[in-house]
Amino acid sequence: DTAVSQTPKYLVTQMGNDKSIKCEQNLGHDTMYWYKQDSKKFLKIMFSYNNKELIINETVPNRFSPKSPDKAHLNLHINSLELGDSAVYFCASSLTTGGPIYGYTFGSGTRLTVV
Amino acid sequence: QQPVQSPQAVILREGEDAVINCSSSKALYSVHWYRQKHGEAPVFLMILLKGGEQKGHEKISASFNEKKQQSSLYLTASQLSYSGTYFCGTANNFGNEKLTFGTGTRLTIIP
Q: CB–CB of A99 and B94 under 8 A?
């Protein structure tokens, strides 16, 4: 049973296209995240949802739009893809009741390549 | 601001010890440690919540110096399976504060 599942694992697309990445967790966690890992391996937070409510929205271009239909799902839609969007995108989840005292569980990542 | 990790990279022979440091410019509420193997997702190792707290996980342990805003990860008698990139993640406040990951330390264990 996969705890945090992300699809697709690989995404190769042309500049200007629109694409979506889906994430689902079956851990009963209340908070989900999108992180971007660039070629230098830096992990940078993009968004966070707590029980379907957006709580963190870092300085991310408006072309990125997250959606959380329920607390077990978090999707990421990207419009008008650019070369600089190429990266690995990780979904993660955590239990945050009581504060940031629990570890994150990451999905396997989506390697996005824009050509 | 991203926590700074040192060293950036280290190569060890099996059985040797390593220390990875994580330093923040902000006050810390909690510090997480993760290991990421090549092409895989980061995996949670441990979390430290209080200043001075030390935790252990088999031969991997960590300490948290709240005053110095620093944490260190200790790997003892390293095994080949310890290879990977280690990240610290810091949370500054109680509540739904984001986890900010450090710059990463690449650890290579050779036989």
A: yes
